[in-house]
Amino acid sequence: MTQSHLITTAEQLAGLFDTVGEASLKKEVSYLHPHYLAMIEASPFAVLATHGPDGLDASPRGDAPGFIVAEDQHTLLLPERRGNNRIDSLRNILHDPQVALLFLIPGLGETLRVNGRASISVEPQLLDKLSVDGKAPKCVIRIQVECVFFQCARAILRSQLWQRADAGRPAGIPSAGTILAALSNAAIDGQKYDAELPARQRATLY
User: Fold this and answer.
1) Which of 10, 12, 155, 181 is the most buried (most CB within 10 A)?
2) What class has domain 22-162?
3) Pyridoxamine 5'-phosphate oxidase N-terminal domain: from which residue to which, for each copy (predicted)?
4) Other C-beta atoms lying within 10 Å of the C-beta of residue 80
5) Contact call for residues 128 and 137 (beta carbons, < 8 A)
6) Domain boundaries, the chain
7) Looking at 6-152, which runs of residues are DSSP E strands?
8) pTM more than 0.90
9) What does the pLDDT profile of the chain (206 residues) look like in tens digits?
10) Rg for the chain, CA atoms, rounded
């Protein structure tokens, strides 16, 4: 790649694209419109993007549809369930409260994007409100919404994401145990890890 092929200015970048359509501008709001709330309530999966001292991070979050709760038209509550205890996203929020969420809804082409500022709460009432089967989240990420808009379906259509969902595990993709055995130089027993993983995941979902 030569320097002459690099885009380095906003003017060069703008020259690559057409004018933004009216619909792409009108769909953006600074609050949780009822139509956008309906999408959040139907979504069982979201990606949380954060920024910290070591750079950017994107973390998958999932639960029953509506697991991210609207406290009001300007606030979302994201429970922090059991996971790998790396807490990358939480540490990043302490460093930089700016976050972004991408909501996906199986079978729907449109996705929903939410940008805002986050804080971390262990308020007992919140923990109790977002408990599942009597098990409270470790904490709750409260997101003050600043920007909300839906993303058109082109990415989902091109990827055929939902059509591929029922095809089972793709051939040639290594298991978690296989990856861990390789990266740990066999210090982790990959076969044992894979054999125990389903039961461990069932027992530690919440």
Assistant:
1) 181
2) mainly beta
3) 33-152
4) 19
5) no
6) 22-162, 169-203
7) 45-52, 55-62, 69-72, 75-80, 98-104, 111-121, 139-151
8) yes
9) 677 899 999 999 999 999 999 999 999 999 999 999 999 999 999 999 999 999 999 999 999 999 999 999 999 999 999 989 999 999 999 999 999 999 999 999 999 999 999 999 999 999 999 999 999 999 999 999 999 999 999 999 999 999 988 778 888 999 999 999 999 999 999 999 999 999 999 999 89
10) 20
CB contact at 8 A, 27 and 45:
no
**Cα 156 off chain centre by:** 16
Instruction: Show the CA angle centred on residue 96, arms to residues 88 and 53, nearest 5°.
Output: 60
Token pair for 173: 């993709």
